[in-house]
Design a protein that fits this description.
Blueprint lengths: L10 H17 L11 H119 L8
């Protein structure tokens, strides 16, 4: 804060002050005593008052600025901590996702093993069914051949009349 020095304006400014004081006394209900104050004295008193309170005010201003700066630093730090917590939560979520993915991967591996095993079993069953079918066909063929042999034998056993010549 700066104080501008007022120059003594001489008798004319004193008469103006007197007139203003008289007007104020006429307007107010209480009688006012006319007081004449020297401009230099007002300036000196103002400077004295300012020199007494200004350093404390400036110190207070500096302290408030420092507190404001510290508050901003604390807010930034707090924001960083909140971000760290969010990252930690995100990491926890990622870890749980990886654990879940591992569980599902293991399930898929087990399903694949079961499918391979079932495929092998079905392949063996198909081979066995094919062998059984071939064996059944052979047996049927042998039965048919046996029947034909029996029919042929019966034909040969049937007496044939001899030819007369």
């Amino acid at each position: 804060m700066e104080v501008e020095e007022m120059e003594d304006e001489g008798p004319s400014s004193q008469s103006e002050d007197l007139q203003l004081a008289q007007q104020d006394s006429l307007e107010g209900s209480a009688p006012v005593e006319n007081v004449f104050v020297d401009k230099k004295a007002v300036v000196k008193l103002t400077e004295g008052l300012l020199s007494h309170y200004l350093p404390d005010l400036q110190n207070s201003k500096r302290a408030l600025q420092e507190l404001t700066q510290n508050q901003l630093v604390l807010l930034d730090t707090l924001d960083q901590e909140v971000t760290k917590f969010r990252d930690c939560n995100t990491l926890l979520d990622l870890n749980s996702l990886f654990v879940e993915a591992k569980v599902y991967h293991n399930k898929l591996v087990n399903i694949r093993k079961e499918m391979i095993m079932l495929h092998e079993k079905t392949t063996k069953l198909k081979k066995r069914a094919l062998k059984l079918q071939q064996q059944k066909q052979r047996e049927e063929l042998e039965k048919e051949q046996q029947r034909e042999k029996e029919l042929e034998r019966e034909r040969q056993l049937i007496a044939k009349p001899a030819k007369r010549t």
